[in-house]
Amino acid sequence: MTEELELTLFQIITAAGGSKSNYVGAIQEAKAGNIDAAKQLVKDGDEFMTQAHDPHAKLLAQEAQLAVEGKNSADLVCLLLIHAEDQMMSCEVFKQMAVEFIDLYERLGK
């Protein structure tokens, strides 16, 4: 694995972590009745996810280019990449949960 790939993967993991923290915070704010703050945290989490998705999309494009060229893309596949993608997937679930909880708490508050 190259140093550049390693840095890219840590960028994805870090951004996904920030995203997940915001989504969890959104649920906590909604539970406390702070619906506007909760919705803002979801938006903030979405910005972190964009920071994770952009380098991830570049890695996918690199792999596709290698496939077109008939080259082996095994150098891109590693445990760190799997971890990064797992973090991104869990963030998507946390976002869905946060949006649902915000809606629920908003309805209960009315």
Per-chain topology:
Layout (H helix, E strand, L loop, with lengths): L2 H29 L3 H34 L10 H31 L1
Helix pairs in contact: 1-2, 1-3, 2-3
State the helical fraction.
over 70%
Strand content: under 5%
Instruction: Please report the total strand number as a whole number.
Output: 0
What is the CATH topology?
Methane Monooxygenase Hydroxylase, Chain G, domain 1
User: How would you spell out the order of helices and strands?
Assistant: HHH
**Could you give me the name of the CATH homologous superfamily?**
Phosphotransferase system, lactose/cellobiose-type IIA subunit
User: Average pLDDT value?
Assistant: 92
Radius of gyration: 17 Å
Task: Describe the structure in your own words.
With about 110 residues, this protein is an all-alpha fold. The chain has a single domain (about 5-110), classed as Up-down Bundle (Methane Monooxygenase Hydroxylase, Chain G, domain 1), CATH 1.20.58.80. The protein is built from three helices and no strands. The chain is elongated. The termini are far apart.
